[in-house]
Structures are given as C-alpha cells and as structure tokens.
What does this fold into?
Amino acid sequence: MRSLLACTLLSLVPGTVSSGGIEWQASYELALIQAKAENKVVFVAVNMDGERANDRMVKDVYRDKLITKLAAETINLVASNNTHGSSSTCSRFGSIPCVEHRQVDVDVRANVLAPDADGFVIAPQHVFLAPDGHTILSVPYGVSEAELEWCFVTAMRSVNEDLPIKMSSKARPPARLVMDGVFEGAGGASSQPLTREEALDLIKELKKGRAESMQEKIKVLATADEPEAREYLTSILRAGRGGGGRRGGGGRGGEDRRGELLRWIGTHSPPSYWEVAAEFLGAGEEMLRVEAVVAMEQLGAPDSLREVAGRVGKEKDPQIKKNLYRALGAVGSDDSRARSTLLKRARDGRDELLQANALLALGVLAPDEDIDEFLRETVAEEEENAQVAALLAIGLTRNAEWVEYLEGLPKDPASRRRTKAIEVSLGVLKGAPLSSMEATVMEAGSDQIPRERIFGGSVRRSGAKDGKARRPSADGEEETAGDEERADGGL
It folds into this structure.
C-alpha cells in the first residue's frame, strides 16, 4: 500500500488529479485487472447528455476539489453512449476519446447495471466496485458532493479498513444508497426526460385536448425540467383536475386526480417541481395538502426550505404538521435553524405524533454530535413511541458507526416495536436496502402515503448478471439491447 494512503483527504499529494476533474480510464476489463493488482476500488459513473442532473454531475460534482482528490485514489470509469465531437479527447469528460466511454457503457450494462425489461438504465448512477469486481455500493439518480464523498470513503474503507482518512463534516449517505448491489429497473421509455422542444410540443397538444392517454401524457410532461411544464401542471391542478378524468386534464366532468398527480410529481419529477407542490401546502382539502407536503419531502429541494419552514410555524392540522417536520428534515438537512426546530420538537413529548416525526426527521440531517447524543438519550430515557422513532432515525442515518451501539442495547422481549426497530435499523446499517425499514417507519410516523422516491424499489445483489446479448448499432459498433438511459430529472 502506498504511503500516500497515510495522508488525510486534505493532504493528498497534489498533481495526481487532472485540472479538469476526474481522470477516466479507457477500459472496463483493464480497470478490473488494475484494481485487483493494486487492491483499489473501481468507481463507475453512468451519465447521459441533455439532462440537468447528469449535466450537473459533469460540470460541478466530478470537478469538485475534494471529489477529484478522492478519485485520485480509485480507478475511475465513465459510461456514456453519447458522442461529443470528433477529437481524440472527449469534450464532455476529457481523459479519453468518446469511443472508449461508449465501450465502457456497453461493458457495465452487461456486467454491472440492471436494465429494466425495455433495456433502460438509470442515469446518473454511481457504482463502486471492489478489486474482485463485486459491487460494494451504488446510488441511482443524482448525488451531491457531500453524498458522493461519503460513498468514496465508505467504499475505500471497505477494501482497507485501516485507511486513515476522515470524512468531512458535510459528508452523509445518500437516501437511495444501495449496499452490495444496484437498483433494479428504470421505468421504461415513458420515464425518459423530454427535451425542451418535446415538452413544448406536448404542452400544445395537451392544451388542444387532443392527446390520447391524457393522464399518461401529463405524467410524461412532469419529468421535464422546464418552466413551461411546471406552469402548465400548476394550471391544471389549480383548475381542479390532476391528470385527466373522463374528459382530460382540466376539463369539466372528469374525476379529481390531483392527489394522484402530486404523488407522481413527488416520486418522479425534478426537484424544481417543489414550486408546483407548494401551491397546495396551505389551501385545499386535507389529503391534497398531505400529498403536497410529502411530495416536497421526496423532492428534497433545498430551495424550498423557506417555504416549508414558514409553513411549519403556521400549520394547525397535526396530520399535515407531522409531515411538514419530515419535509423540513429532507430540504433543510444542512440548515442550523431546521436542526434547532426539529430538536426542539423532538424534545417535546406532549404530542407523541409530532415528536415521533421530528425524531424520524433527525435521521436525515447532516451528521451532528448534538443529534447523536440526543438520540442516545431518547432511547435510554423516553417512552416506547419516542424510543422506536429514535432507533429508526439511527437507521436512517445510514452511518455504520451506530452498529456497535445498537448491538449493545439490552433486549426487551416485552417491547415488540422496540425490538423490531433495532432489527430493521441494524439491517440497514449492515447493508440491507432502505426499503427493508419502510413499513416500520410508516407505522412509527403514522404515515398514509408511501415515500417511493426515498425508500426505493427492487435491488439486484452483486453477482447477478443481466446477460443481454449485444447487437450492432446503426453506426456499426456493438451495443447492448436497449441502449437507452433513464435520467433522474434533477435529483
């Protein structure tokens, strides 16, 4: 092991990183050979053109100073089926020509990723492989610099547990983290983001009322990160419809499907759609408002913090307020005032419903010693409902340093709920998918609405290969069947 590994992140040797960002390797097979020979992690970034979340990863995250320093200690592959000019060096990713990142795309589809039935894969997506090629962890959809930092350090420590590097105070696990596998499925062609031109054409079609499958077309439009798309969807929600009833979106005589549309937005739309959901935070029937709040929680847009925080203080309905606390944690994970608000509410046991949800929200905040200490105190001293919520919050942190603490807690056969909370949190901290604790969290929070975007879907464990045959593409190069990508839409 090189002596460089004895350094901290802030003292990594300069000059090992390209000034343009991460240095990408040219071959999947050669990367695995090098990884095995040098006992290194392989970082795989799946990317596509023409979508904002993917573009942000290339422009900002892969060029972040700390991320590039971490990537200097791994072997890095970028998988993209697009072509960026005719020069020998790719204008989008640098380091390698486009023909090489296109071949990497073919190879990782066949050996690493989990395309859906139509051959689509999620992009952006990030996978960390061990030196022997098995998946250490992966994250579908976009991630922040702080989340990708956590992934890098966690993956490298799994290969060398004595690695003396420390995460920064901002590092935290992604909500959709998958340990020991990759997210399975991508939703097919209907989930692909529209180009701006396609979105504008679809809006014209919908306004004429001539679109077939009106409800499905509106859902497709909700994947477009365009202001006109948000404005149109807001207008049909205001009009009292939400996806087309018997007569289509916004027309009279149709059933009210606004709640269904808001739930779809929360699960599938770009974070900018918080502006659409925010319209219904303070007005309308209770279930519609609840759908709007949960949508904002799932969208997790930091830009919506002011809106959510302002609503918390005004809200009187406990069913809505308890969800506002959860949303506050999601959108204000790095905000000191959000942390103070949640801690204050979590210490107040006069309303068990609000206390439990404030406790659950603490689990998604950025790491904080005061929160850690408070969770321990709650588990030791509070009544069962608060204990259960605190134990689940520990699982939601995805911080494996909690494993020893949970394993050391005394067993109480009389408290089934407490035992279950410890069990599912330990499972997640040891690598189980977050979906394994969804039902227990829903019970603790008295949730009526699932949070699919947060808890995710099916996972293919490392080692299961897709086995799709390759087919020649239009330009004569080989590609896997279904060479499409699903974009995050800005997560």
About this structure: Residues 211 and 449 are 30 Å apart (CA to CA). Residues 3-185+464-487 form a domain with the Glutaredoxin fold (CATH 3.40.30.10).
